[in-house]
Structures are given as structure tokens and as C-alpha cells.
Amino acid sequence: MAEQKIAKIVVDRNLCIGAATCVVTAGTVFELDGENKAVILQQGGTKNSGPAKRAVLKDAAVADATILAAAQSCPTRAIFLYDAAEKQIFP
Ligand code: SF4
To answer: Does the Cβ of 26 fall within 6 Å of ligand 1?
Structure first.
């Protein structure tokens, strides 16, 4: 996958089981909230499960490979990635 191809991230809270492997893999992007669901860390302290545009991520320099690895690490495939054309690129 080319660098910066990921343009949007969404966590499906119904699928997320709080396994936290995404947090371990990409701790600057994902965190668990009080309900043990993954949220996306965004600028200005915003934290929610998305949709979150790449441009508003708190860690603006995070590599696509790191985000993709986090999504791939999720046992329930709860992390959805989209490109700039809104095409789903994972899972
Ligand atoms: S790895 Fe998947 S199931 Fe685990 S916290 Fe992250 S999104 Fe949720």
C-alpha cells in the first residue's frame, strides 16, 4: 500500500471486543474508552470511533503501514480503512 493512501478510519463498535491489539500496534492512533471499545485519537483531544479523516489524526505522521497493521491485528476486523475516494481498502 502506498504511503498516505489511508484517508479515513472507522471503528465498528459493535464488532470491537476490546482486545486492544490495535492499541498495542498503533498506540498513537487507538485507545480504549470506558466501554472497552477502540476510539481514534484526533487533534484537539477528540476521541471517538470515527469516521475520522486521516487529516485530523493526533499523530499526523503515523505511517499507513502502522494503521494497516493495527487493522490487520484486530481479531474481529472491527477497523475499517478507506482511501480518498471513499473506497474501502481494509478489510
Ligand atoms: S483490536 Fe479490534 S477488537 Fe481489539 S480494541 Fe482494537 S478494534 Fe477493538
So the answer is: no
Neighbour count for residue 71 (Cβ, 10 Å): 23
Q: By alpha-carbon position, which residue is closest to atom 2 of ligand 1?
A: 74
> pLDDT-based confidence at 4, cuts 50/70/90?
confident
Q: Calculate how far, in angstroms, residue 50's C-alpha sits from the geometric centre of ligand 1.
A: 14
Q: Which atom of ligand 1 is nearest to the CA of 12?
A: 7
Q: Tell me, what's the pLDDT at 2?
A: 45
Determine the average pLDDT of the residues in 8-32.
Answer: 98
pLDDT at 1: 43
Enumerate domains of the chain plus CATH numbers: 8-85 (3.30.70.20)
d(CA 87, CA 61): 22
User: Does the pLDDT at position 87 exceed 60?
Assistant: yes
- The protein residue whose alpha carbon is closest to atom 4 in ligand 1 is 19
Which residue in 69, 67, 31 sits closest to 49, CA to CA? 31
